[in-house]
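MOLECULE: protein
FOLLOWS: sequence and fold
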Amino acid sequence: MSLDSPPKSSPTIIITGTPGVGKSTHAQLLAQESPVPLKHINVGEWVKEKGLYETFDQDWQSYEVDEDKLLDELEPLASAGGVILDWHTCEIFPERWADLVVVLRCDHTKLWERLENRGYPLKKIQENNEAEIMQVVLEEARSSYESEIVVELQSEGTEDLESNVARIVQWIEAWRKDRDVADEDG
């Protein structure tokens, strides 16, 4: 953090994982349950709404994101804190933005069903399922951020959802308490 920027009063949390693991559901519930106001940004939807893409890939049924435009749009929000960034990848986000990176994981058979229910093309289901089995997103997170801020959580059902959100809420409370102490001492 530069000396001229004020300290964040709320964290920037990245919730990531293979498509279908429950990122948006977790982020929505966390935004509701958080002890501090957090703005949920579903990055994939944001890209579409703000036109932050180069083309649409028909085969994969997805947008090819203009990463520079996306990062420029997110910079002021993520740097200030108080946001949950919900996206299937995390390594493009600067390390300085993240206070916590939550990688959601799901059993690959459950994931396959979820993606089928979304109507994904078979090719996309297979690739995402393989990515989950190979822990691609988890490895991205571990190689992009300090290990102490990367947390892997299971996301297989409602119990996991509730437990995970409660755990993140506790983390937010501890983060704020630590920041208050540091601010008073500094």
Remarks:
- DSSP finds seven helices and seven strands in the chain.
- Residues 181-186 have pLDDT under 50 and may be disordered.
- The helical segments are 23-33, 43-50, 67-80, 108-117, 122-133, 136-144, 158-185.
